[in-house]
What we know:
4 strands; 143 residues; two-stranded antiparallel sheet; 2 domains; 4 helices; Non-ribosomal Peptide Synthetase Peptidyl Carrier Protein, Chain A; single chain
Amino acid sequence: MLNDFKTFIMRGNVLDLAVAVIIGAAFGAIVTSAVNDIIMPPIGMLLGNVDFKDFFVSLTGQSFPTLAAAKAAGAPVIAYGQFLNAVINFLIVGFAIFLMVRAANKLQKPAPAPAPLTKDCPFCCTPIPIPAKRCPNCTSQLG
Length: 143
């Protein structure tokens, strides 16, 4: 059983998947930081010094100055500002993956065309196996 597990783990696609998950997690942290620390502050400044993380709706009807204050009070909230940040994160990650897949596809050579298995009989134009010495359709001798 241990040898089967070792064989399973050491296959190339499992290792590739593990590496992809680790790199994806690191890339996700970079994108989250880019959205929260670089992209959203200028957008918030253009909209009147607004912090998108603090966009929320309190379901109790009470008014709270920040999302943290509402959560500290135990009020149920819809934190649509954090959702907006998550959507922007997703779009950036999706676009980056699209660019990487597109670049990888350009680097791959097209698969070679498979060797033909048949040829046409020069007398009746019927497809026949390449090693054939006589056409099964018209019985002509082939060179």
